[in-house]
Amino acid sequence: MVIETENLTKYYGNKIGCRDITISVGKGEIFGFLGPNGAGKSTFIKMLVGLLFPTSGKAFVLGKPVGDVDVRKKIGYLPENFKYQDWMTGEDLLSFHASLYKLDKKNAAAKMEEVLDIVKLKGHERYRIGTYSKGMQQRIGLACALLPDPDLLFLDEPTSALDPVGRKEVRDIMTKLRSMGKTVLLNSHLLSEVEIVCDSAVIINKGSVIKRGKMEDILESKLILEIHAEDLNSEVLNKLRDFDPGLTYSNNMINMEIKDKDATHHIASIIINGGGKLFELSPRRVSLENVFINLVEGGEQR
Amino acid sequence: MIAIAAASFKEALRKKLFILVAALTLIYLILFGTINYFVIRDISREGTQNTLNTIEVASTIVSFQGLYFSSMLVAFLTIIVSIGSISSEIESGVIHSIITRPIKRSSYILGKYLGMGVLSVSYAIFLFAAIISICAIFQLPIVKTLEPLSVMKGLLFFALEPLAILALSIFGSAAFKTLSNGIFVVSIYILGLIGGVMEQIGSVLNNQSLVSWGIISSLISPFDIIYRQMLSSILSNIGVTNPFMVASEMTNTAPSTWMLIYTFAYIPGLVILAIRKFRLKDIS
User: Does the residue B284 lie in any domain?
Assistant: First the structure.
């Protein structure tokens, strides 16, 4: 396992940062770490990268207990709202981080070229970072994190300052890293993004895990079925309610939830055999956003 | 550690306040040259060269107008570049991407100390050399009597003072917020000045309790001790004067050997305290 935590807990005085977080992340995975603002996501990442010291519990990263300095040679970390020494140029910053990673001079120059290319900032490296746009600042931060050719990359809200094109570029970088066998822990509240890119995820709220698993398990493989049909009688509608008692029907549109794809053709035949005219029937997966909101709101109500 | 040191050195040089210090230094050196010019002119006009009075005036110029004010300038530079050296990086979040790299927290502190230490010692050496050179250019009578070895010894103590202030400031910056640390360091620096005067007034008046209070404040803030040691190293052969001389019979006393040993221990002691404070600090 690349990351393993056992009941990792952090209290700030009496206030909970996060509590009893147990996760394991395998090699070559993009792992999503989700939760509303203030849920304890950043606290968790900061413990794994050695900024915060756990109150209790254990954590191992690349097989070493957190805090091991040498193992950090293979770890990249992009903090949330990446801050930099604004008097430095992009090149100064990269060479500063290359020396922090203890890259030798020749290797450092080659790596700097390479990461500038990856984050598409070539030609900007001689300007002061203070003159960069927000997105460029975030990308130079990502470039710093990529310098050591990391086996494990921690990204804390990497795309929140980026425009859609920038987001896609960061997603592409993540998937490219995965294809190279690298592991990424992505902390984000941009759920559509997590849904696209992550293999597994945990959702935390108020410092504790409320859902975990492979992405398809989290999405519960439930499907939403949108049906456009006319001339439906009550008998047909009642039969459809057997699949989902909570279905909605108005303006010849039915919206219902089904457990698996197999139900789709049953539903089509019920409508047609019952004399209805079927114009459109489209199954789509429940979005992560729906699952997330249900879980978080459910948690609040309890 | 070297990477941190180099970055801190460059950062301090780029601070706007550094330009202010450079301008102050220039003005100060011009003023100091002017004082020298007029003193020498008046001495030669009155033809009182080599009298005791002249030597006293000249040594006051070197010690008070020269080294005392320049040691204050060095202290000022050291304090402004270092009070936020760690705390401001924590407050801004710059530190997040630094100490998560493969460097020990102790190396971070030592790197900061090294980078700013080199800067403030270089500035101290420059200022010291400038003062002595100006005195030499104007052929201040006292300069001829200075032994090169004692000047070098004096320079060592002159450069030690910013290193001691830096150790205190780094500790404060690891422990407190930038503003609090500014107040902390400046208060302790001033305490040292007052303590030094108390101790000397106490010794003139034979008032043991004043002396004791002076010593206690010197333990917290040994900067004045270092200054006095520096002065007595340079001017030992001609008798030294103290800027806060309140009685004519009062002479500057060189600090005791124990006090000097304490001062040497003060620097590593505070750096170690800074490392201990920072080693397990939560950075959120």
Answer: no
